[in-house]
Structure formats: structure tokens, C-alpha cells
Amino acid sequence: MSSSVPCTIYRLLSTEYDLTSSEDEFLHFENPYQILIATILSAQTTDRTVNLVTKDLFARYPDPVSLSTARQQDVEKIIHRTGFYRAKSRNIIAAAQVLVNLYGGEVPDEINKLIELPGVGRKTANIVVHHAFDRADGIAVDTHVGRLSGRLGLSDESNPDRIEQDLLKLFPKKIWGDINGLFILHGRKVCRARKPSCSCCVLSSLCRYAALNTLQ
DNA sequence: AACTCGGGGCA
DNA sequence: TGCCCAGAGTT
């Protein structure tokens, strides 16, 4: 593959999508604590659903100290609508306890430390670094990112960690966060798992899968 | 690698 | 009604 292909992909997707508007949901959170908790709650749920509960949640538990001593039953009532509420309640309380006990009530800004928090995996850690610290130390490989990477021929791997390694080599670090957001938007709206809209896709001219898919 | 946790939104 | 949502933890 030509080394300019990743650059072209980035340019085309940037023209197609406005990342700043799609990230508005997160902008109203005031600090890394709120972003961390909201991101844990956002697993397998839309940002809009999370936003239905965060006002109540942060009014009652404005900081790690207050959340660390919360009763799980009370937290469950507030976040019930975000799904997986038992595990999420347990995890955010335990995470708050770790913040208080190990990090002086602050949210660490390193992937390796964030990943140790209950309820935080590699994807969530990447999201928190990106949104809370305005930086991208990696790329969160969800189903969309994995699917696009395969169809575009950017990676032949199946393991998300290895796909991430391939992507990190292909794209310059300063656009990792943008690539992450753009791939997810494109994977959701155009390059869908089921019926991808290759005829409307700005990347179709450089995509093997589109060439295959549009053959009749 | 497979399985479980789960309510909300949308076509 | 079926499918999807910037997943994580356990077995």
C-alpha cells in the first residue's frame, strides 16, 4: 500500500465529519472525575442516555470522596437507565475509592494507571485520556474501528490490541484521537457491519471491500 | 473464546 | 420487533 493512503483517508473523513460537534456531549463535564465516571457509564450505551443521569449523579456525588462512601443501592437508583447498572455502580464506587486511596482524589492521566481502575479497560482508558487530558496515547479499537481497519486493508489482525499497534504505526500520533472518532462515526453511519453504503462512501475508491461489494 | 450483564433509542 | 450502543469481568 502507498504510504500516502492513511493521509488520504484522514483527509477524506475529516471533510465528511465534524468531530467538534459530535464531542459536544462531553464538553459540558467540568473535570476529569466527571469525565471518568461518565465514560465508565457509557459502555454499551449512548452518550445521550448517560447524560440523562449525570446531572443527578454529580449533584449527589460531586467528587471522588463523596462517591467513594456512597451506598451501591443509592447509586443504582440514579444510573439505572444506563444499563448494566449493578456492575457499573459497584465499579464507579470502587474506582472512586482507588482515586482517594492511591491518587489523592485525582484522576491519573496514564493509560496503565487508568486501566487498573475497576470498570476501566483499554477502550475506556483511551477515551478518558483523550477527553479529560486532550491527548491521545492510543486508539480505542471497538467493533467499528476493527471493521474499518480490516475492510480498508490497514490491518490483517483480529486481536484488537494488534490492530491498535498497526494503526499507531500508520497514523501520526497527533491525529490518533481524531482517527478514533472519525472511524467510529464512519463505521456507524456508512461502513456498517450489515449493509454498508459503499456507494455513498468517500473512501470507496481506495477500499478493497467496496470494490468487492459493488460488483454485481 | 464464550458468556453475562441491561436499559434505552431507533427504523 | 430486531438491532445497536467509543465494554469489562469472569469462566
Automatic annotation (TrEMBL):
Its cofactor is [4Fe-4S] cluster. Residues 41-189 form the HhH-GPD domain. The keyword Ubl conjugation does not apply. InterPro entries: DNA_glycosylase (IPR011257), Endonuclease-III-like_CS2 (IPR004036), HhH-GPD_domain (IPR003265), HhH_base_excis_C (IPR023170), Nth (IPR005759). Keywords: 4Fe-4S, DNA damage, DNA repair, DNA-binding, Endonuclease, Glycosidase, Hydrolase, Iron, Iron-sulfur, Lyase, Metal-binding, Nuclease. Gene3D superfamilies: Helix-hairpin-Helix base-excision DNA repair enzymes (C-terminal), Hypothetical protein, domain 2. The keyword DNA repair applies. One of its GO terms (molecular function) is 4 iron, 4 sulfur cluster binding. One of its GO terms (biological process) is base-excision repair, AP site formation. It catalyses: 2'-deoxyribonucleotide-(2'-deoxyribose 5'-phosphate)-2'-deoxyribonucleotide-DNA = a 3'-end 2'-deoxyribonucleotide-(2,3-dehydro-2,3-deoxyribose 5'-phosphate)-DNA + a 5'-end 5'-phospho-2'-deoxyribonucleoside-DNA + H(+); Hydrolyzes mismatched double-stranded DNA and polynucleotides, releasing free thymine. Its EC number is 4.2.99.18. SMART domains: ENDO3c. [4Fe-4S] cluster binds at residues 191, 198, 201, 207. Binds 1 [4Fe-4S] cluster. PROSITE patterns: ENDONUCLEASE_III_2 (PS01155). Belongs to the Nth/MutY family. DNA repair enzyme that has both DNA N-glycosylase activity and AP-lyase activity. The DNA N-glycosylase activity releases various damaged pyrimidines from DNA by cleaving the N-glycosidic bond, leaving an AP (apurinic/apyrimidinic) site. The AP-lyase activity cleaves the phosphodiester bond 3' to the AP site by a beta-elimination, leaving a 3'-terminal unsaturated sugar and a product with a terminal 5'-phosphate. This is Endonuclease III. It comes from Methanospirillum lacunae. The gene is nth.
